[in-house]
Specification:
Blueprint (H helix, E strand, L loop, with lengths): L7 H12 L14 H8 L7 E10 L4 E7 L5 E9 L3 E8 L19 E2 L2 E6 L2 E5 L5 E6 L4 E6 L2 E6 L6 E2 L10 H4 L2 H5 L1 H5 L13 H10 L16 E3 L2 E3 L8 E8 L3 E4 L18 E3 L21 E5 L4 E6 L5 E9 L19 E9 L4 E6 L4 H12 L12 E3 L7 H13 L6 E4 L20 H10 L3 E5 L4 E2 L5 H8 L13 E4 L2 E4 L6 H9 L13 E5 L19 E2 L2 E2 H4 L3 H16 L8 E3 L11 E3 L7 H16 L5 E2 L11 H11 L5 E3 L15 H16 L1 H14 L4 E2 L1 H4 L13 E3 L3 E3 L9 E6 L5 E4 L5 E3 L2 E6 L7 E4 L2 E5 L15 E6 L6 E7 L6 H4 L4 E8 L2 E6 L12 E7 L7 E5 L4 E3 L1 E5 L4 E5 L9 E5 L1
Parallel strand pairs: 22-23, 22-34, 23-24, 24-28, 28-31, 31-32, 32-33, 43-45, 44-48
Antiparallel strand pairs: 1-2, 2-3, 3-4, 3-5, 4-21, 6-7, 7-8, 8-9, 9-10, 10-14, 11-14, 12-13, 14-20, 15-17, 16-19, 17-18, 18-21, 19-20, 25-27, 26-27, 29-30, 35-36, 36-37, 37-42, 38-41, 39-40, 39-42, 43-44, 45-46, 46-47, 47-53, 48-52, 49-50, 49-53, 51-52
């Protein structure tokens, strides 16, 4: 790989790191993270916090009271909200903070709608609030402070039941005056910051000076904890974190009686069901650039979504911890303790033998702001979370097709040759990708003049074949006075600052780099403007964008990321770290929308992400390796992301590092073809691995896997439309659809696409068979390749060959496919549909068909789409309009109908919407019980009925 002299050092460092597995010493353990170590030293059952019930204030939508730490007399403010949709919000902040503490903006799509709270009972040590229907109550116990959410006699969740609430208040350092403690930058902006909090309770509007006086007046009564290592300054390797605000970490524990299975808090290369962390490190949420990450490890990776989901046969619930700072999550399982509420409620004691899971969240800064999603079903939790942070963006159809990538395609001629290779080998693909070498000296928004001298000619060549290109644009900017992007960022003062106020600089791919402050909305607006065709020279409408390295990655920074005492305006990087990647992707997606005048849907892939990132595009699982274990791990990693709203997930097919065997590559294509984001990618040091380079037999196997993906694109597209509307995951664990079946709770080697396709990829070397669990007592499943029928509620052994991809369609479903596969999805837009009608044991089935223009926002802005309900019952198949107010026409028609699991009719009659009737040709395979209706010839957008007699 060619590189400029000033970029050789980071390049050499990165390549050396990438040869072997991750160097764990580059990343902190809990013991090496001072606040995590302090928090973990706290012992359960010794909570110093007491609720001051006489400070209670209650409005229709907001309940507040003060908490006091009896050890140091510092007060906190507790806010409780009952939210629409069976959710509760709990906020805890300092009552009179020395200065404002960071509260995460831009993640919630709007202020959640609140519902009325009321006090239904109170005594000297507790009070009970009504949470609405089903006899839900929130019980506040005063000493020690504790919250319990109950429904009738059942305790759903308890907060601070273990007494691990900890809130490190902002304070002056003992050997430093307060005027020195508060930096001049923060002090000068104090007045403007106060206005941000003007809508809060009067008690919260105390200035930092008032708090100082309070502490000074009561100094003799305050029992401050002793200073511990890392409270005021922390060193990791050669990096020192100055911690100008001192200790500021927060913690809260949650107890879940009756719960043994919890999921979520991605991203980790670990099992779907979260593990007990007693005796090991907690799960860490801190976006980091981790090369060739280890498997079965709770260490942090590229993204962080602080959402945890609990599930049992009784109930599904969620916890959303809205905090963007470094966060650790401890999980322990034990038997539930006995819970009594004195005079308030006569509640039956929880059985001491009942299972219980305890979860403790610990964050370095900010406030406690947690949303408790009370379900009760999985579908309800997904809806609740989507109401807070939004749904998965609706991608253009091409983004759901196959992507071809490596680091790097050398030049325009290489791109042309690879593109032609797909045609020569009759393999469809939609997007070819360019990594960092395409830019001029790693100057993003540019093209290398010798390798890509005519980018528009290259893009036009792809457009002529109805294909597209994705180019990388990373958020580290080469410090170069001859680089327009750098100069404009400097002139607009848009770079992140170091602790002394100068522009923060670090090493990344271009060498010395600046980092735009994406937390600044003005910066994001400017960044978005740079994607305009007259700004990004050489770009065209068939070019999409890839945001990599946006954790942010800083090769010479602590843990390969930005220093925590860097500044984003008045906030430290420690406060906003996990938001940075979300903001980069948001600004980029906004830019692609704006360049088209708001017409075209964008596609942006990001490596770093946070809660709400689903609104802006796709993610992938980062720098994996060509190993069977990484293929296996791609399944639980993407399932975990789907559970917390990010459906558009995939892993680098073949593995980014190392060189896969032909068997591994084929198996990875077969698995990737049935995951939401389907991209092959490879490291610059690996041999080329285009699909036709492993011999004709393997080429044929890969071709077939990719063709299966293209045939199913109508189903994928419909699922993403529904995910965009409802927040339901596209790729989902079996327990989501079978919540009462305990056998599904830990399954992670198979999964559902929607509710109607079950996939069990082959992920073991040399496998001659797999055992798939087919759920659903009384249900039936059909092998999609052979149409063989299998009963549900069984483990089925399936012999496999290298051509096998075990996939089953649920009886009772109708799936729409396009079996005429062409060179790209765009070439297939007007092609006809084949309906696969898989009958259940009652002889019925239903499904959906969704069609629009596949790339614009017209479906949303002008209601230009087709959405139809397909049903088969009593030997009648019909298509009914689900969107009567929409206006859209399609050239696509119904070419064939396959009815699986039925019987042979004597006749088949098509009834059109205008009342005309015609007889249909059909064939019946009695061996497979498959009825094939040929050429109904009806338009896909109209009403019709087929009657079998």
């Amino acid at each position: 790989m060619a590189a400029s002299c000033d970029s050789l050092l980071p390049l050499i460092l990165l390549l050396c790191l990438s040869v072997q597995a991750v160097d764990r010493s580059n990343f902190k353990t809990c013991d090496q993270s001072a606040f995590c170590k302090r928090q973990r030293e706290l012992k359960p059952g010794q909570s110093p916090y007491r609720a001051l019930l006489d400070t209670l204030e209650l409005s229709n939508s907001r309940f507040t009271l003060q908490l006091i730490n009896d050890n140091n007399k510092v007060r906190l403010l507790l806010e409780l909200y009952r939210l629409q949709g069976n959710m509760t919000r709990v906020k805890i902040n300092e009552f009179k903070p020395l200065k404002p503490r960071y509260e995460v903006p831009d993640v919630l799509i709007s202020d959640p709608i609140t519902e009325t709270l009321s006090v239904v009972a109170q005594d000297e040590n507790s009070l009970v609030l009504s949470l609405g229907g089903k006899d839900q109550r929130l019980i506040v116990s005063a000493q020690p402070f504790r919250l319990d959410i109950v429904e009738g006699p059942q305790v759903l969740m308890s907060l601070n039941s273990r007494g691990l609430l900890a809130f490190e208040h902002l304070r002056a350092r003992k050997d430093t005056s307060i005027s020195h403690k508060i930096s001049s930058t923060v002090g000068s902006m104090w007045d403007s910051l106060k206005s941000m909090f003007s809508s809060k309770n009067e008690s919260e509007q105390a200035t930092g000076q008032e708090n100082v006086e309070q502490l000074t007046d009561e100094d003799g009564q305050i029992k401050e904890e002793e200073d511990k290592p890392g409270m005021w300054e922390e060193t990791f390797k050669s990096h020192t974190d100055s911690k100008p605000n001192g200790p500021s970490s927060i913690s809260l524990d949650f107890s879940l009686p009756g719960v043994e299975h919890i999921y979520g808090i991605p991203e980790h290369a670990d099992t779907l069901k979260l593990k007990n962390t007693d005796g090991s490190d907690p799960y860490r949420l801190y976006n980091l650039d981790v090369f060739q990450y280890e498997l079965h490890n709770p260490m942090a990776l590229y993204g962080a979504v602080p959402v945890l989901i609990s599930h049992s046969t009784d109930r599904t619930m969620g916890i959303f911890w809205l905090n963007a700072a470094e966060t650790w999550v401890d999980i322990s399982s034990n038997t539930a303790g006995r819970t009594m509420f004195g005079k308030i409620l006569d509640i039956v004691q929880v059985s001491s033998e009942a299972p219980q899971t305890d979860v403790r969240w610990m964050s370095e800064s900010g406030i406690i702001d947690v949303f408790i999603m009370l379900g009760p079903k999985p579908v309800d939790v997904f809806t609740q979370y989507a109401s807070l942070t939004g749904t998965q963006s609706f991608p253009p159809l091409s983004a759901l097709a196959y992507h071809q990538c490596r680091w790097n395609y050398n030049d325009q001629e290489d791109v042309k040759t690879v593109d032609q290779g797909f045609d020569e080998h009759d393999i469809p693909y939609d997007l070819i990708w360019l990594d960092i070498e395409h830019a001029d000296g790693k100057r993003y928004f540019t093209w290398d003049p010798s390798k890509f001298p005519q980018p528009k000619e290259m893009l036009q060549g792809l457009m002529d074949k109805r294909r597209k290109l994705v180019a990388i644009v990373d958020p580290h900017i080469r410090v170069d006075s001859g680089y327009k992007i750098h100069n404009e960022i400097v002139s607009k003062n848009f770079y992140v600052k170091n602790k002394d106020g100068g522009d923060y600089e670090g090493w990344c791919w271009p060498g010395n780099s600046g980092y735009p402050d994406f937390t600044n909305p003005e910066m994001r607006a400017w960044w978005a403007s740079q994607f305009a065709y007259d700004q990004y020279e050489g770009s065209m409408e068939n070019q999409y964008i890839w945001n990599d390295m946006n954790e942010p990655s800083v090769f010479n920074g602590p843990e390969v990321t930005m220093h925590k005492d860097a500044l984003h305006g008045v906030w430290e990087h420690r406060d906003v770290h996990n938001l940075y990647g979300l903001y980069v992707q948001k600004a980029t997606a906004d830019g692609l929308i704006q360049r088209s005048g708001g017409v075209e849907r964008p596609f942006v892939l990001t490596r770093a992400f946070f809660a709400g990132s689903q609104r802006y595009g796709a993610v992938w699982t980062g720098d994996n390796a060509a190993e069977w274990g990484h293929l296996k791990m791609s399944i639980p990693m993407c399932l975990s992301l789907g559970l917390v709203g990010i459906s558009f997930c995939g892993a680098d097919v073949g593995g980014f590092f190392k060189h896969p065997s032909a068997e591994l590559l084929v198996r990875w294509y077969q698995a990737g073809a049935y995951q939401p984001f389907f991209r092959a990618h490879a490291h610059i040091d690996t041999p080329r691995r285009e699909p036709w380079l492993f011999g004709p037999e393997n080429t044929a196997l890969i071709r077939e896997a990719i063709r299966q993906r293209y045939a199913l694109l109508p189903y994928w597209y419909q699922l993403f439309y529904n995910a965009h509307r409802t927040g339901q995951p596209v790729m989902r664990p079996l327990w989501v659809e079978y919540p009462d079946d305990v056998a599904t709770f830990i399954i992670e080697d198979e999964y559902l696409i929607g509710k109607d396709l079950l996939v069990h990829p082959v992920t073991d070397e040399g496998a001659t068979g797999v055992t798939a669990y087919l759920p659903g007592k009384g249900e039936v499943w059909y092998d999609v390749h052979t149409f063989q029928k299998h009963d549900g509620d069984q483990s089925l052994y399936i012999p496999v060959t290298m051509s096998s991809i075990p996939v089953f369609q649920r009886g009772g479903s109708i799936i729409c496919r396009k079996d005429r596969v062409r060179r790209s999805s765009s070439c297939m837009e007007n092609d006809p549909y084949t309906l696969y009608v898989a009958l259940n044991s009652q002889g019925s089935a239903e499904g959906e068909l969704y069609i629009d223009d596949f790339h614009t926002f017209s479906y949303e802005k002008a209601k230009q789409f087709v959405h139809r309900h397909l049903s088969f019952s009593a030997n009648t198949l019909s298509s009914r309009n689900l969107a009567t107010d929409s206006q859209f026409s399609t050239a696509s028609w119904i070419e064939k109908i396959m009815i699986i699991g039925g019987s042979q009719p004597s006749s088949a009659t098509l009834k059109n919407a205008d009342g005309t009737e015609s007889a249909l040709e059909f064939e019946f395979d009695s061996t497979l019980a498959v009825l094939t209706l040929r050429k109904p010839g009806v338009n896909a957008a109209v009403d019709w009925t087929i009657v079998l007699r």
